[in-house]
Amino acid sequence: MRVLLDECVPRKLKSSLTGYECRTVPEEGMAGKRNGELLELAEKAGFDVFLSLDRGIEFQQNLQSRRIAVLLVRAQSSRLADLLPHVREILERLELSRPGEVVRVG
Questions:
Q1: Is this prediction's pTM over 0.70?
Q2: Domain span at residue 73?
Q3: CATH number of 85's domain
Q4: Full pLDDT tens readout for the chain, 106 residues
Q5: For residues 100 and 75, what is the distance between their CA atoms, to the nearest angstrom?
């Protein structure tokens, strides 16, 4: 499963998501793109899940027609230390995510 980490997610989180091919938005050359365009590019690049902290994305985009799942992490901040306690749940939810679905963690 291929997971794309949003720009707001610390890149060091990748090493905690074992068993998944994780890339960041900047690594994929998608930095600065708006959510709709970003999701479209992620789908075209073959990503299965878009992991973000941006709670507004589910209200700004029609995700039901997408071929990618969106996993939203609710944490105290975007600092790695605040995200690490959620890794176990993130890993569990990644397995259950389906295209066009919004999955919430935290």
A1: yes
A2: 2-105
A3: 3.40.50
A4: 999 999 999 999 999 999 999 999 999 999 999 888 999 999 999 999 999 998 877 667 667 788 999 999 999 999 999 999 999 999 999 999 999 999 999 9
A5: 23
